[in-house]
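Listing S7. Sequence submitted for prediction.
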Amino acid sequence: MAKNEKICIIGAGPAGMSCAYYLAEKGYLPTVFDKASRPGGMLMNAIPNFRLEKDVVEAEIEILREMGVEFKCGVEVGKDITIQQLREEGYQAFYVAVGLQQAAKLNIVGEDLTGVKSGLDFLREVNAGKLKKLTGDVVVIGGGNAAIDVARAALRLTKGSVNMYCLEKDEEMPTVPDEKNAGIADGVVINNSWAPKAILGE
C-alpha cells in the first residue's frame, strides 16, 4: 500500500535514483525533478556510450517508473519552481542530489577562446548528439577518468591526433589503470609531468 507523504527528490542522477528506489521499495511514491531533458544525470548525459550503454540506464529508469516513481524533467528547482512552491503543493520532505554540474577552471590565459571547452561540456554535447565531428588535433588537459573519457570520445570524432597532458607522473595519474590502458589502446597519447601556462589562439 502506497504511503501518502509527498517526497521531492531534486536531481535524477545516480544518487537521486538510488533514493527514489529505496523510498519506492518502502511504499513511498517520490517525484524526481531534474533540469535536464531526461533522467539519468551524468550516466546519460556525460559518460560516453562506449563506456556505458544507455539502454541499461533506461531500463533501470523504467523499473523506477513501474515502482511508482514520477520524473519531471526540464524543471530546474530554484529557477522554474521554488522549494516554497513545492511545499505549498504538499511536498513534506526533500532530498537534494544535484551532483557536480560545473567543471573546474584552469585559471590560465586563453581558456575562454573559441574551441576550448570543459571536458564536462564536451561530453554533454557529444552525448546529446550536438557535436558529431572535430577537425584537426585535440589536446586534453587532465589525467583523471573524465579526461580519458574526453580523449577517447574525441578520437572517435577526429582524424587528427589526441594528446593528453597531465601534471602527474605516469604512476601518479588519478585515472584507474584499466581506463588509462583503454585510452592508450584507442590511440590516445599521454604526456606526463606537464602543466599548462596559457592557451594561445588568434
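Caption to Listing S7: primary sequence and predicted C-alpha cells for the chain studied. Residues 72 and 201 are 42 Å apart (CA to CA). The first helix runs from residue 14 to 25.
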